[in-house]
Amino acid sequence: MALTPLKPVILKAAVPLAASLAGFIYAWILAKKNLSFKVFSSPENGCDDSSKLFSSAEDGESSTPMNRLVIHDKKSFSEHEITGLRNQIEGLQMRELAMRLQFELYCEMKAQESLLVEVRNMLSLENDRAEFLSKEISSIETETVRLESFVVQYMSVVEQLQYWRSQNRVLQRRVQKLLRDSKAKSRLIKVQALMIKEKEEELLRNHEDFQTRVCVINKLEGEIRELRRILEQLEEEKKEVVKKLETAEAEADASKLKKEKIHRKPLKYYLEVESGDVSKEEYNKVLNELEEMKKERSTEVEELMKQYEEHHEEGEFEGGLGFVQYDSEHDLHHNDSAESDHASSKRKKFLKTLKRWVEGSEKVRVKPEIIKQSSVSCGSKKSQVSSNSRFCSSA
Hints:
Blueprint: H1 6-60, H2 64-261, H3 267-274, H4 280-314, H5 322-360, H6 368-394
Helix pairs in contact: 1-2, 2-6, 4-5, 4-6, 5-6
Coiled coil: 217-314
InterPro entries: CHUP1/IPGA1-like
Transmembrane segments: 13-31
């Protein structure tokens, strides 16, 4: 790198020398070319003459002195050729030297060009570095400005922090005071909440009692409606039974009048002899039904009497047991009504059979005892209906 300042000076001195040397060599080469051209043209003329001589020698068979001249000419031609060749070799050597000088000059120029490229690259790098440094300096300046603004903001934030710390201390004192007040109020609120809870529980109990009473009242109203419906049904059944009893009594009176005129004979005789429509099995069946109905009527009357007495005895207890008693009496009443419905169906069936026997055939004659038994059963039914109606009215 220390020799780099000397190279431009050498380059400046060598360029004109090389140019002058190249011009000299080029002029010398042109002169040699002209000389060689003349030499080559003269031997060609000699060759033509020699060819003519050889042709004349062949034709006229020339003498020996002519042959000597030809040989002398050949020697002179070879000497001229040798000198021309020497001149060409020297010219080529000079040309080679000039080419070497040009090549060296070219190599030096290439080296200088590479150096120039390197210097240019270095200059571009230095420019880039300078630009980078300028940008970095500008960024540092902006950063310093930003840091200055940040420092200003930091100072303002520190001042605000100190202010808010003082405010925080004041607020903490207030919070402690409010906590003490809130604890006292919370104790008072707990006491009031307990009182309110007790009142709510009491209200809930009262509400539940009220709801139960409402449910019981609704249930009793439904049962009352059901009892009224049953009473109406029993009244209708009573009317139907009264009508049937009246018809049965009328038929019994008519049969009595007829039987006074006829000799009294056993029922078995009338059923077996005079009538072919009624069999012994039907007769026995009717008798069994009559006995069963008598037993059922007696048991029903006893149960009704017991229930009536229990009802009057239980009516003296407190109102809390009244609902249960009413439910049990209502269930018993339903059971009694079901039994009475079953018994009434049997009575209706028995009355229908009696009516069929009376109105079905003229040959059948029923014994007065059967009519009396039927009237007795109807009377027991009437008494049962009246007892049922009294029981329902008392309920």
